[in-house]
Amino acid sequence: MTDSKVTADLSALDDLALVRSFVDGERTAFDTIVARHQRAVYQVCYRFVHNHEDAADLTQDVFVRAFKGLKAFRGDAKLSTWLHRVAVNVCLNRTALVRPGIEPLDPARHVDDRSEDAFGMVARGERAADVRRAIAQLPPKQRATVMLRVYQELSHEAIAEILGGTVGAAKANFFHALGNLKRMLES
Amino acid sequence: MTTHLTDDERLDALEGTVDAARSAHLHDCAACRREVADLRQVWDGLMVDARTEVPEPPPMFWDQLQVRVGSAVDTRTAAWWMGARGWMSLAAAAAMLLLVVSWGARQRTPVADVVVSQADAAIETEAIGDTAQWQFVSDVLASLEDEAVHEVLRPATGAFDDALATLSASEREAFARLLQAELTEGSE
User: Is the pTM of this model over 0.95?
Assistant: First the structure.
């Protein structure tokens, strides 16, 4: 079978079948997993560090860990949820050591500016930077909860699954995170 | 009058999922409305940042990522093997040393006591040669072809230096004494 035929066949598999194929020794199945989930993982990582270089390193680290850990993946959760969990853990571990270097926001590049004047854009950019700085100061679990709820728009159920714990605990974390952010943004 | 909203219910109100009965309380209770409004203010601040899109990485990034991950996996696997090989080389070097000592012990009588540790523990090499363990090693080696023995015990390039680097000062000293003793014997 040619490489392109193998790749095409693997692309047709669902995530669980890809994992089984990889565990059975088909290494190219892992390449397909990377290709399928790299964008979502990169976005999670970027939200933690706010710069491409670190996000790229983190994304690579997430998949290296996934490569080593996939043999233990049982399929109880979706692969995307499992990768989210790995990504959040990698990001929390890394950013616990080094506070993120937050790039100054370039509002003209990143936001929809069709109905906003320059003053509004700058004010919004400053406000967003304040929010990021405040998020960076949150305790790790609250920070992860905010990232997943606000930026990834995941449900409290999904967040509980990713971070471990109950839905009630996930909601409580989010509630306390909002309270802490309020205090920090007011000060 | 109903009780105020719990933290959980305030969050539900913020996210629009609070049930009808509690929603009615919220409608009537200024304190709860204020609490929810405070949460909404923070939420709106977060949404300002959340609406900024993650910038698209350089065009080649996605193609390169698979290669980068593959290289990183291979590098880490290789590093693990290098570590394992280092230990195997150390074991091979130790086995060679013991063979040399054993061989020397068979060549001379009486044998010299050899100091092998900082505690000055002396090993009588004649006695080593008589033990059941050494007999086992000797039998195994005797059953192998010379080439096979060489292949098994041959350390990797640089492995001997690596192995020496892992020895403590006292171990290096003992090792030097052993070598010196063997060299002296060999030259006599």
Answer: no
